[in-house]
Specification:
Blueprint: H1 3-15, E1 29-38, E2 44-52, E3 57-64, E4 71-73, E5 80-85, E6 91-95, E7 98-104, E8 106-115, E9 123-133, E10 137-147, H2 156-163, E11 176-183, E12 187-195, E13 204-208, E14 214-216, E15 220-224, E16 227-236, E17 250-254, E18 259-263
Antiparallel strand pairs: 1-2, 2-8, 3-7, 3-9, 4-9, 5-8, 6-7, 9-10, 11-12, 12-16, 13-17, 14-16, 15-16, 17-18
Protein name: Thiol:disulfide interchange protein DsbD N-terminal domain-containing protein
InterPro entries: DsbDN
Domain Thiol:disulfide interchange protein DsbD N-terminal: 47-145
Length: 268
């Protein structure tokens, strides 16, 4: 998909929502913050839980051609240093002929917070912007304000979400990953070759360029023996030239048995 086709596809998807929002009974999405207490290294383990009406879905950090990624604003929080989010392995959906990637009915995002001052409480306050879809798609903005409980015990909901994270390269027995780059009329083509056992069933690879100013098209994924081949086109939304750093490229393979998170690739 070329750059001139990206924004119209998104605009059409979300433009359909406005006339029918009155038909939705109650809030489509509700957010609450879960407590998981302090870790041995002094960080706080928490989670953002988004509960959706039955049949509604929301999106992963790389949502595909038919979605928008969740965005967080933590700026009103107190005593928050570093924030690290663990994304559970998402599902692949077909939406009006376009591929989208996300979660249905509920999303639990584990969040590890490093406090600026370990002796003071941590308060999470801000907003989460996300898109939610069923027959139509609508944007949502959800507020949160919660002081974390340092004495909270193990939270089984957070533990379950952490267990759904993609495998690492080592866990998935990834032997080698290369990325061949070649120019196109709109940007840059990436052909990634990943030497790894099958993740099960139909495999879908997602390529993230590692630069928020760049957009990667839906990946074509095939397999030849022990090699998975993933091809995508990367473009700059502004239309200007750009460079790709192979060490920043992130490839996620979504399979029927598990997902795999691959960080960086070599030229050969």
């Amino acid at each position: 998909m070329s750059v001139k086709n990206v924004l119209p596809a998104i605009a059409i998807t979300f433009g359909l929502a406005l006339p029918v929002t009155a038909q939705v009974n109650g809030p489509v999405a509700e957010l609450d913050i879960l407590d998981g207490g302090r870790t041995a290294k002094g960080t706080y383990l928490s989670a953002v839980r988004v509960t959706l009406q039955d049949g509604w879905k929301t999106y992963w950090r790389a949502p595909g051609d038919a979605g928008i990624p969740p965005q967080f604003d933590w700026n009103r929080s107190n005593n928050v240093g570093d924030v690290s989010i663990t994304w559970p392995a998402p599902n692949v959906f077909d939406q009006n002929g376009l591929q989208s990637i996300g979660y249905e009915n509920q999303l639990v995002l584990p969040v590890e917070i490093t406090p600026k001052n370990p002796a003071k409480p941590v308060r999470l306050q801000g907003t989460m912007d996300l898109g939610v879809c069923k027959d139509v798609c609508i944007p949502e903005q959800l507020d949160f304000d919660h002081t974390l409980n340092a004495d909270a015990g193990r939270n089984p909901t957070i533990a379950a979400a952490l267990a759904q994270r993609p495998f690492s390269e080592h866990e998935a027995r990834v032997a080698h990953t290369t990325c061949h780059l070649s120019p196109t009329s709109d940007g840059m083509k990436i052909e990634a070759r990943v030497t790894m056992p099958s993740a099960g069933g139909r495999e879908v690879a997602v390529i993230e360029p590692g630069n928020p100013a760049l957009w990667a098209s839906q990946t074509e994924t095939t397999r030849t023996g022990n090699t998975l081949i993933a091809t995508s086109e990367v473009i700059n939304a502004s239309g200007g030239p750009f460079a790709l750093d192979r060490s920043e490229i992130r490839i996620t393979v979504l399979g029927a048995n598990h997902a795999v998170d691959i960080r960086g690739c070599s030229a050969s």
